[in-house]
Amino acid sequence: MLFLLTSLAYANLPSQAEVVMADVFSRQATSLNGQWHVIVDPYDTGYFDYRRQPYDEAAKITGGYAPDLQAKDKTDLIEYNFETSPTLKVPGDWNSQDSKLFYYEGSVWYRTKFDVKETGPDRRWFLYFGAANYEADVYVNGTKLGKHIGGFTPFAYEITGLTRSQGNSLVVRVNNNRHPEAVPTVNTDWWNYGGLTRDVLLVETPATYIANFCVRLKPGTTNTIEARVQLDGPERQQPVKINFPALKLAAELTPNGEGLAQGELAATDLRLWSPEHPLLNNVEISAGTDTLKDRVGFRTIAARGRDILLNGRKVFLRGICIHEENPLRGARAWSEEDARLLLNWARDLGCNFVRLAHYPHNEHMARLADEMGIMCWEEIPVYWTIQWTNPATAANAKQQLADLIARDQNRASVVVWSVANETPVSDARTAFLKSLVDEARSLDGSRLISAAMEVHADTNDPARKIVDDPFGQYTDLCSFNEYTGWYDGLPEKIDRISWSVKYDKPVVISEFGADAKQDMHGDTETRFSEEYQAEVYRRTLPMLERIPGFSGCTPWILCDFRSPRRQLPGVQNGWNLKGVISRQGRKKMAFAVLKNYYNEKAKADAAQ
Ligand code: GCU
Fold first, then answer.
1. Is 48 exposed, middle or buried (CB count within 10 Å of its CB: 0-12, 13-18, 19+)?
2. Confidence (pLDDT) at 122
């Protein structure tokens, strides 16, 4: 997963390896957030010449927008100028910032300038991006650093030796065109927000730095902490110190030739993290002059028979699904404030669990969930029907999974890795998903693996629901989406449902729900009324209790969200209305139904 770097200084480098940069928020970094100049480029004129040859395949990039040129004098022919171009805010999607870009899919070129304050010899410099949707080509001072594919995972490039002290040009081509071979593919039920959607940072490190680390309870124990630390740089075999000041625990590890240090710390009487007690421990990891500080919780999570065990104790997952969108702004969420808004609503609902759908959310979500004591299900956008037999698609999905795990492996709140949502059963699909499960287990065997599977009805009895997806044999949870009462019949049908679930595993219902327009009222059979939605909740919850092994649910969804698939005028207007909270942030009737149910569940859990 980790790539070793050496500092380079060529006119145009072959696509550099991306680097993993853990814990970037505890590093010495300069934020490059702010207003960036942009060029909206529907014909990709800045990327391709008129023969559709990419400019950045040349040894030295001379054409297109990457060189960030300006006319030197009246005779100079330069047909763009970032300096006099409009600006957009970074982080942020472009769709919600400019009504002309609301539906825009294509390329937008971003440019900012930055200085590099040299603080001493042997320093290294990196550019870190929290995410850019969907693909990003990154250039510094006209040199191509690389191309990142995947709209929801972090990436970073080393720029040591490529900069000057002042006025460095950072140009990023961001393109959010949808492609059949992509992950996600062309069809989703969420808005295809484009742009530099998360933090951009200039990061400074010593010549040898801590590229990544993982500290957690050794699986199967509650008294042994295992640590893995990856160094990058010339001194990658220097000792690594790990220190938990409050626990009076410390160790010194010796890295191998690859700079990987591994070890264990005996930790008696460790107090464990849980939603009731979200205990976090300060940890310091240092090697040479590089130090990372973080706050980590220790907990165990396991499936045993049909139960989910948190710290060895049976737990019910009182959950809700969340999209990474701030409904009040009608925009992609990215900040700690956005995360706090969403998680406080989930907390208010009585949740101890959230499903972050259908792609990796920003890092603030899991970090805040750690602090607030909310367990998380994290997912990669293998959504609906993607190209199962396309090796590039498989590699892309695997990379997104690896990037997510590398970023959030130290978050106690993250208890489930999900590799897919509502994917059609076929051998090619099941093999594709199986390889993702294997990848997740090899990268992190300490968490539950799942996916949102589909249900089908018994052909002889439409009220008999069957869960026998062959993929279910590979997961720890048996999770599926269930929409009786909305996509299948009216609310009254819910009472007649019976189940045949093939797997002797904990059942977590990953979605159920119905659309309701805030303040639209009618009887419980009037679609889009709050009464209808509340009725679906009122009937579904007791129905789910009839499923053997029912161990949790994440109804669809916390808030109304933008979707290009929801076109009912005067009702949906481009919004999926299945939120229990509206786009104005107001609670619908169903909110109280679910909250009451979770209150009862919490009492029952506490009483066991
Ligand atoms: C699907 C899907 C969601 C979608 C929801 C809906 O199950 O997973 O992404 O938004 O149903 O139809 O509202």
1. middle
2. 85
- Cβ of residue 554 lying under 6 Å from some atom of ligand 1: no
Residues contacting 529, CB < 8 A, separation 6+: 516, 517, 520, 521, 522, 523
Question: Ligand 1 in contact with 355 (CB < 6 A)?
Answer: no
Instruction: Tell how far the Cα of 502 is from the centroid of ligand 1, in angstroms.
Output: 23
- Ligand 1 atom closest to Cα of residue 188: 9
294 DSSP β-pair partners: 283
132-174 pLDDT tens trace: 999 999 999 999 999 999 999 999 999 999 999 999 999 999 9
| 559-568 per-position pLDDT tens digit | 999 999 999 9
C-alpha to C-alpha distance for 276 and 162, rounded to whole angstroms: 49
Dig out the tokens for 169 from the structure.
């040009």
Q: Is 607 helix (H, G, I), strand (E, B) or coil?
A: helix
Q: Is 511 in the pocket of ligand 1 (CB under 6 A)?
A: yes
pLDDT at 266 (0 to 100) = 96
Place of tokens 């053997």: 548
Residues 6+ apart with CB under 8 A from 320: 346, 349, 351, 353, 354, 355, 554, 555, 557, 558, 580, 594
For position 125, what pLDDT does the model report? 96
Read off φ and ψ for residue 257, nearest 5 degrees.
-60, -25
- Give the three-class secondary structure for 426: coil
The residue to mutate among 450, 479, 511, 563, having the most atoms of ligand 1 within 8 angstroms of its beta carbon, is: 511
3-class state of residue 347 by DSSP: helix
In this structure, which residue's CA is closest to atom 9 in ligand 1? 189
* Residue 481 beta carbon below 6 angstroms from any ligand 1 atom: yes
Q: Are strands 498-501 and 478-481 parallel, antiparallel or unpaired?
A: unpaired
Angle between helices 363-372 and 336-348 (to 10 degrees): 40
Residue 272 class from Cβ within 10 Å (0-12 exposed, 13-18 middle, 19+ buried)?
middle
Bridge partners (DSSP) of residue 228 are 214, 262
Q: What 3-state DSSP class applies to 363?
A: helix
pLDDT for 4 equals 37
Interstrand relation of 456-458 and 87-90 (parallel, antiparallel or unpaired): unpaired
Q: What is the pLDDT, as a whole number, of residue 6?
A: 38
Pairing of strands 507-511, 478-481: parallel
pLDDT on residue 16: 55
Which of 544, 516, 519 is CA-nearest to residue 528?
516
Question: Going by C-beta distance under 8 Å and a sequence separation of 6 or more, which residues neighbour residue 1?
Answer: 20, 212, 402, 406, 443
Rg (CA), the chain: 25
Which H, E and C letters describe 507-561, residue by residue? EEEEECCCCECCCCCCCCCCCECHHHHHHHHHHHHHHHHCCCCEEEECCCCCECE
Please tell me if the CB atom of residue 137 comes closer than 6 angstroms to any atom of ligand 1. no
pLDDT digits (tens, 9 = 90+) for 108-143: 999 999 999 877 888 999 999 999 999 999 999 999
- Which residue among 556, 568, 571, 576 is best mutated to probe the pocket of ligand 1, counting the most ligand atoms within 8 A of its Cβ? 556
Distance CA 522, CA 530 (A): 8
The structure tokens listed for 83 are 């300096």
Residues of the chain with pLDDT under 50: 1-15
- 389 CA to centre of own chain: 24
